[in-house]
Write a structure and sequence with these properties.
With 420 residues, the protein is an alpha+beta fold. It has helices at 2-8, 30-39, 41-54, 169-174, 176-187, 190-207, 283-293, 371-385, and strands spanning 11-12, 24-29, 57-61, 64-77, 80-86, 89-108, 116-138, 146-156, 160-165, 222-224, 233-234, 238-243, 247-251, 256-258, 277-282, 299-300, 303-314, 317-326, 329-337, 340-345, 352-357, 390-392, 404-407, 412-417. It folds into two domains: 2-23 and 210-417, Super Roll (Bactericidal permeability-increasing protein, domain 2); 33-207, Bactericidal permeability-increasing protein, domain 1, CATH 3.15.10.10. GO terms for molecular function: lipid binding.
């Protein structure tokens, strides 16, 4: 419990999960990383803005001392990224990055004619190339607290423009050739490497952002145990994270999430597709939601839902067995339902979670329930179960329209899609 509290700030029934407890496994391919970073570079600006603002550049040209500080990113555009995955590390390369930065400018000449001026200088880079090695480091036994480290960063900038806005801009324009040469050396040296490394780290942190207790509705206590207990793993095929995927009931006073099923996760065979992002989910992850859902009494129109269980996956869907009490008479219904994936917007910042849905719509067995009762059961379950759905943060810009569902065996389902 002490380890769990220190690592996560919250307690769980399963304090020390292992790979054998992982009912949700997520894989992102190199192409998926590339597409995600190119698509979401704007979201990373805030992370690297601080490092730009902290830069202080000082140099002297033709007897004029020039200071540049408090830089602000005005525009950044990434059109090409290449990722090469290796075991335990990756090579990341950004090519032809367009980057516009505006610095506060101060110039001073301490000899005649004793000039002093302030203003701004815009720096427009059109072909910024960055390459770095990325690895995952664990600073302590809390695998969840992994850090992304970049090393051996190289940069190359050939073409850029500078523009001045100040009273002495005519003077600065006249010596701009010397200023450009000096800045080019800086940008292809330590300052450029620092900027490139920060940009790469920001992009990868954006990719791996997650909540270890995501909830569909944060006004309600139903959450998903999404602790990355094995951290982030890099292989030659993909990056991988594991979580138990079990639903739990969060008690904010106890700072504890209750609700793990005492069941064993079955082994899965190695299976990958060419999809950018791939989720592999064991039936236990769904059953934990049903289990938590039934902690409350579920009665409507004289019908009581006593049990809901995903017994197995078939080639075309999940077999769901529902036990009812209808006016004192037991009924057992069997459904064959597809696993569906949707996106749900969880806040105003544009953060989407993936939502994996199973409902009760395709009844296989005969029943004495009338058609209207069957429809009422489906509607009741749909409305009352939404907060218990299995969700995953974040959704990586997944295209749900192109999601492909593959039922691997009786126990596992594979959902693959693309990041566009």
């Amino acid at each position: 419990m002490l380890l769990a509290a220190r690592c996560f700030g919250i307690g769980f029934d399963n304090e020390d999960p292992t790979i054998a407890d992982s009912a949700v496994r997520v894989f992102v391919t190199a192409r998926g990383i590339e597409n995600y970073c190119v698509k979401n570079i704007q979201s990373a600006i805030g992370t690297i803005q601080g490092s730009i603002a902290a830069m202080e550049i000082q140099f002297t040209v033709a007897g004029i001392s020039i200071e540049l500080n408090n830089g602000r990113i005005i525009k950044v555009d990434v059109s090409n990224m290449d990722v090469f995955l290796q075991n335990d590390s990756a090579v990341l390369k950004l090519s032809n990055v367009e980057l516009d930065i505006v610095f506060e400018l101060k110039l001073e000449q301490k000899t005649f004619p004793y000039l002093y001026d302030t203003g701004s200088m815009s720096l427009q880079i059109s072909d910024f190339t960055i390459q770095t090695y990325l690895s995952v480091e664990f600073n302590d036994e809390c695998k969840n607290n992994f850090t992304l480290q970049t090393r051996d960063t190289t940069v190359n900038i050939k073409t850029f423009q500078i523009q001045f806005q100040c009273n002495n801009q005519v003077l600065l324009n006249s010596i701009s050739l010397f200023i450009t040469g000096f800045l080019k050396d800086l940008l292809n040296g330590d300052i450029g490497k620092q900027l490139g490394s920060n940009m790469m780290t920001a992009l990868m942190k954006l990719l791996t952002e997650f909540s270890y207790l995501p909830r569909m509705d944060y006004d309600k206590p139903f959450g998903v145990d999404q602790r990355y207990f094995a951290g982030l793993q890099i292989t030659e095929n993909n990056i991988q994270v594991n979580s138990t995927g079990q639903r739990c009931l969060y008690n904010k006073d106890e700072v504890y999430c209750h609700g793990h099923l005492k069941q064993t996760v079955t082994q899965t065979r190695t299976f990958f597709t060419n999809h950018h992002v791939q989720y592999q989910i064991e039936k236990l992850a769904f059953n934990s939601g049903f289990d938590l859902y039934l902690k409350e009494e579920r009665i409507f129109d004289g019908i009581k839902i006593q049990n809901v269980t995903l017994t197995k996956f078939h080639n075309t869907g999940a077999e769901i067995v529902v036990t009812l009490d209808v006016g004192g008479t037991p009924q057992i219904l069997t459904y064959l339902e597809p696993v569906m994936v949707r996106l749900v917007r969880v806040n105003q910042d544009g953060i989407d979670f993936a939502r994996f849905i199973i409902r009760l719509t395709n009844l296989l067995t005969k029943t004495t329930l009338s058609s209207s009762q069957q429809l009422a059961l489906s509607a009741y379950f749909d409305n009352s179960y939404r907060s218990y759905d299995l969700i995953y943060a974040n959704a990586l810009g997944v295209s749900v329209e192109k999601a492909q569902i593959i039922y691997l065996d009786n126990n596992w389902v594979h959902i693959g899609s693309f990041i566009e």
